[in-house]
TrEMBL record:
This is Triosephosphate isomerase. One of its GO terms (biological process) is glycerol catabolic process. The lineage of its organism: Bacteria, Bacillati, Actinomycetota, Actinomycetes, Micrococcales. It is found in: Cytoplasm. Signal peptide: none annotated. It comes from Brachybacterium aquaticum. SUPFAM superfamilies: Triosephosphate isomerase (TIM). HAMAP family: TIM_B.
Length: 256
């Protein structure tokens, strides 16, 4: 069981128009009434176009829900058609941003260099990056999952100050478990989450390693979250599909 405040983040991916987003966030606010929200942080990551709607609903209802984006531009502003800057997200009250999700790496060619630039752009705007790392199936089958994941981690956090490293969130998401229904075992999740923390300890020392929240992501549901959260180095979950249902996501947030 983690000694840090658990974080449950819902990645809505490319789902829900603004009306559906409004309905989901309001319903989630209702469902979270049965959860002790002083003991867990709940975050949603809607599509960009839904963020304003989520902001208004969260503010109006004083809902215990933080929100953020699924991506961020590495650039500050200017001629980058289609991009959204950290400052724009911050102005919407966003607190978190996912960086380096495997779908960004796979479909948009985002490598370590881009991911690292986006992590830095998030910090420059006062946002907390949720850096996603994790191996594809072939790497796991070859027994290289830890090595592969740590290379992504080290590339993603290169050049951060200890103060920045202390507040980053890392999400370990084995690619073979994302959207497949195939969840990693608690032992698998613990092995890599602990390796991530050890790498942070080697790079930035005890204070950073003991503060950083390391999430597990990949087919998390209310039926498997408790056993994952029993592990010492699993500090929460990044949840895709199951975050689209308010009751289910609130149950995940209330694992304790
Ligand atoms: C994700 O999108 O980051 C994810 C973990 O998805 P799912 O929970 O659907 O596997």
């Amino acid at each position: 069981m983690t000694t840090r405040t658990p974080l449950m983040a819902g990645n809505w991916k490319m789902n829900l128009d603004w009306k559906q987003a409004l309905a989901l966030v309001e319903e989630l606010g209702e469902q979270l009434k049965s959860v002790d929200t002083t003991k867990v942080e709940t975050v949603v990551l809607p599509p960009f176009v839904d963020l304003r709607t989520v902001q208004v609903a969260v503010d109006a209802g004083k809902l215990p829900i933080a929100y953020g984006a699924q991506d961020i531009s590495e650039h500050e502003s200017g001629a980058y058609t289609g991009e959204v800057s950290g400052a724009m997200l911050k102005a919407l009250g966003a607190t978190y941003v996912a960086v380096g999700h495997s779908e960004r790496r796979q479909y948009h060619g985002e490598d370590e260099k881009v991911t690292n630039a986006k992590v830095k752009a998030a910090f420059a705007s006062g946002l907390v990056p949720i850096l996603c790392v994790g191996e594809p199936l072939e790497e796991r089958q070859a027994g290289k999952h830890v090595e592969y994941t740590l290379a992504q981690l080290e590339g993603g956090i290169e050049g951060l100050t200890a103060e920045q490293a202390k507040t980053i969130v890392i999400a370990y998401e084995p690619v073979w478990a994302i959207g497949t229904g195939e969840v990693a075992t608690p032992d698998d999740a613990q092995e890599v989450c602990a390796a991530i923390r050890d790498a942070l300890r080697a790079l930035h020392g005890d204070e950073v390693a003991d503060a950083v929240r390391v999430l597990y992501g990949g087919s998390v549901k209310s039926s498997n979250v408790a056993e994952l959260m029993e592990r010492a180095d699993v500090d929460g979950a990044l949840v895709g599909g199951a975050s689209l249902k308010a009751e289910e996501f609130a149950k995940i947030a209330g694992f304790q």
